[in-house]
From TrEMBL:
Residues 15-323 form the Enoyl reductase (ER) domain. Pfam families: ADH_N, ADH_zinc_N. GO terms for molecular function: oxidoreductase activity. This is NADPH2:quinone reductase. PANTHER family: QUINONE OXIDOREDUCTASE-LIKE PROTEIN 2 (PTHR43677:SF4), SHORT-CHAIN DEHYDROGENASE/REDUCTASE (PTHR43677). Gene3D superfamilies: Medium-chain alcohol dehydrogenases, catalytic domain, NAD(P)-binding Rossmann-like Domain. InterPro entries: ADH-like_C, ADH-like_N, ER, GroES-like_sf, NAD(P)-bd_dom_sf, Zn-ADH-like_protein. It comes from the Bacteria. CDD domains: QOR1 (cd08241).
Length: 325
């Protein structure tokens, strides 16, 4: 089978190459899936150079999430059959023609979603859900400021916040991205992500500031966000796409009465398994009901993995990129 293999941790994904690997066999409690579509996520890129908190043993096949069809069942697997259309996430292995995962890592694919969209919603919308609902306690009518709103996770946060009845301010860096966001999800405001955005946010919210701020960017964006958050607000730390991990003097959240909350959706589910199941069930239900609509920026062949990685690094994509093995 074709697979993208990481044999060495190196900058510019120098340790990655497309290889021919044996088709893996499922063991007890495992399922083999023929991958029809694999989502590309920023952590996938970080793992190729050893810059992510998960450092798999070399060599490994990256790929956090996928959609496909069950191809073979290991012993003791119940509730699944060959040919079932599924979605799943297993931290590794999706960027290949076949992957083997624990049976409990799979969920039925939403019937109305094509494979490409089904591979695009799991990681991004789970992160958005854990951030907004579990960590942010979002309520209808809240003002939610989403940074990096054109990225896969940011765009999911815009869509989900709207579906949950919040008032959404989407921040993005270019006019083309802002136009795309407005056309896709109609947030209450779309603003330019540049220094001085705090004045715009204050004006839009009647002076009080945003109740929730969803920040996958970090750096200067985080610094300025502390100046336009409402009293009792929640500043959600989702990532550091800017490259700088910011620092904060704790007198600021004390005086302004806001919380800084870290968001790690996968770890949240591992620490609280029952809630993790509930989180996945919630986004699956929203997808099945058509209340959330993941946006796929482009679908590329697995051989074009370098192009997909480069598009994410240059922040060109609006929404998710998909590789087709």
């Amino acid at each position: 089978m074709r697979a993208l293999e990481v044999s060495e941790l190196a900058p510019d994904h120098g340790g990655c190459r497309l290889v021919d690997r044996p088709v893996p066999e499922p063991g007890p409690g495992e399922v083999r899936v023929r991958v029809c579509a694999a989502g590309v996520n920023f952590p996938d890129l970080l793992m190729t150079r050893g810059a992510y908190q998960l450092r798999p043993e070399l060599p490994f096949v990256p790929g956090l999430e996928f959609a496909g069809e069950i191809d073979a069942l290991g012993a003791d697997v119940q509730g699944w059959a060959r040919g079932d259309a599924v979605v799943g996430a297993n931290r590794l292995g999706a960027m290949a023609e076949y992957c083997v995962v624990p049976a409990n890592a799979l969920r039925p694919k939403p019937s109305a979603m094509p494979m490409e969209e089904a591979a695009a919603y799991g990681v991004a919308y789970l992160t958005a859900y854990v951030g907004l609902v579990r960590c942010g306690r979002v309520a209808a009518g809240d003002w939610v400021l989403v940074h990096g709103a054109a990225g896969g996770v940011g765009l999911a946060a815009v869509d989900l916040a709207k579906a949950l009845g919040a008032r959404v301010i989407a921040a993005a860096s270019t006019s083309s991205k802002r136009e795309a966001i407005a056309g896709l999800y109609s947030p209450d405001a779309v603003i330019e992500a540049r220094p001085g955005f705090r004045a715009t946010v204050k004006a839009l919210t009647g002076g009080k500031g945003a109740d929730l701020i969803f920040d996958p960017v970090g750096g200067d964006v985080f610094d300025e966000s502390t100046r336009c958050i409402a009293f009792d607000g929640r500043l959600l730390v989702v990532g550091f796409a800017s490259g700088r991990i910011p620092e904060i003097s704790v007198n600021m959240p004390l005086i302004k009465g806001f919380s800084v909350v870290g968001v790690r959706a996968g770890e949240y589910g591992r620490r609280f398994p029952e809630r993790g199941v509930q989180n996945l069930a919630a986004i699956d239900a929203l997808a099945a009901e058509g209340r959330i609509r993941p946006h796929v920026h482009a679908v590329l062949d697995l051989a074009q993995w370098r192009d997909a990685f480069a598009m994410i690094e240059r922040r060109e994509a609006v929404g998710k990129l998909i590789l087709r093995p």
